[in-house]
Amino acid sequence: MKQPRWLWFVVLFVLSSVIQYFFSVNVYVLLFIVCTSSFVLSECFAQFKYTLSKRENKELQEEIRTTATDAHLKNKQLLTVVSSIPYPMLLIDQFGNVVMHNTIKEICVSDKPYEKITYLHNDFVHSVSEFIKDAFILEKNMDKIISVKNIEYQAISVPVTAKGHYSGCLVLFQDISKTLEGEKMQKRFIADASHELKTPIAVLKGMIEILNREDFHDEETQKEFLKQMEVEIERLDILVKDLLQLSRLSLSTLILEREKTDVKKLVEKAFSSLKKKAQDKNIVLTTDLKTDELLFCDPKKILQVLLNLLSNAIKYSDTGTITVRSYTEDAYYFIEVIDEGCGLKKEEIDKIFDRFYRVDDARSRKNGGSGLGLSIVKSIMDAHGGEISVESTYGKGSCFRLRFNN
Q1: CA 377 centroid distance within chain
Q2: What is the pTM of this model?
Q3: In Å, how far are 277, 291, 385, 404 from 327, measured between CA atoms?
Q4: Which of the following CATH numbers is that of domain 82-176: 1.10.1740.10, 3.60.110.10, 3.30.450.20, 3.40.50.10940?
Q5: Closest to 117 in 3D by CA, of 180, 51, 168, 71
Q6: For the purposes of burial, counting CB atoms within 10 Å of the CB of 87, is it exposed (0-12), middle (13-18) or buried (19 or more)?
Q7: Which residues contact 342 (CB under 8 A, 6 or more apart)?
Q8: In 10 A of CB 230, how many CB atoms?
Q9: Are 286 and 322 in contact (CB under 8 A)?
Q10: Cβ-proximal residues to 81 (8 Å cutoff; 6+ apart), any chain
Q11: pLDDT tier at 141 (50, 70, 90 boundaries)?
Q12: What percent of the chain has a predicted confidence (pLDDT) above 90?
C-alpha cells in the first residue's frame, strides 16, 4: 500500500520538536533538515516500491509466458494425438461448435468440408449429422452402428464435463465393416462346417442302426456297409484335419519357418506322394523348372500347397499330363500347376477359393474331398505375402499360378 508523503512530514516534525527541545537547535536549520530528510526518505521509499513492483511484474509476465507456452505445447500435442487417430473424430464445445477434428472427408457429402462446423451447420452425410445432433443435445453416452457411403461405422459419443458442468462432447466414427464381414464369414463357416460334418455322421448312424438290428443277417450287405463306413470315417478324418489346419492358418500369430528352399526337391516329394493316384488314372506328372534359384519360404507349407494343387488336378482329370513349371520374372518367383482336366466355367473361378466350395460336388465327395483344399492354399499364400491366381478354359484344363516376392 502506498504511504502518503505528509505522514513523513508529521513524523519528522515531531522528531525535530524533540531535538529542538533537548538540543536548542535553530528553528530554520531544523526546518531545512526536516524538509530535506522527508524528501529523501520519501523518494527512497518510492524507488524501493517501484523496484519491487517491477520485479513482481517481471515474474508475473514470465509466469504468464511459461503458462502460455505450456498451453501451446499441450494443444499441439493434443492436435498430434487427434491427427494420428485413423478414424473420423470431432470435439464439440458447449455452444455446439466443432473446435477440433482430424480427417473427416469420408463422412462428408463433398470433398471440401465447411470451414466453420457446428452440430447444426455442417456438410456431413445425413446419418452422421443426425448422430452428432443427438449426441450434443442429449448430453449422454451414445453407441450406434450407422451406414456411411455403404461402409458400416460404429458411432461413439462421450460427454465432456468441466467442474461438473457440461462442456461439449467427443464423437468418434470407427470403421467396423471388416469386423462385421469377419463375423459373417465366421458364422457362415460354422454353418458350412456343421453341414459337412452332419452328412457323414448321418450316413454312419444309419448304417450302424441297420447293422444292429436283430433280424439283420446279410453278410454281403454287412461287408459293403463296413467298407462304406470306412470311407465315411476317412472323409471325416480329412475334414477335421483340414478344419484344424484352416483354423491355425487363420490366426494372425501364424509363424512361418522360412528358409532357402530348392523347389525341385519339393516337387519331387509331391510327385512321390501322388504317383500311385496319377498312375491309376493314366496321368503323367512332368516338370518344366526354368530356374535353379532357391525360394525363401516355409518348405512344409509350400509342399502342402503343391500337394493340394496336384491332388485337385488329378481329381478333376480323367487322363493326360500335369506339369509343374517354375520361373522368375522381375522380382517375383512363379510356380504353376497346369492340367488337362475338365477346366472351370467363368462363374466358378471367383468361387473356387471359398470354403467348402466344390466344382463337381459328386466327384469331390466320391474322392473324399473336404472342399477346403484351395482355401488352405490361399491362406498359406497370404501368410507368405504371395498370391494365387487361376486361368482356365472349360473342357480343356486349368493353370494355377503361385507368385512369391523372393
Answers
A1: 24
A2: 0.53
A3: 27, 5, 18, 11
A4: 3.30.450.20
A5: 168
A6: middle
A7: 316, 317, 318, 359, 360, 394, 395, 397
A8: 10
A9: yes
A10: none
A11: very high
A12: 26
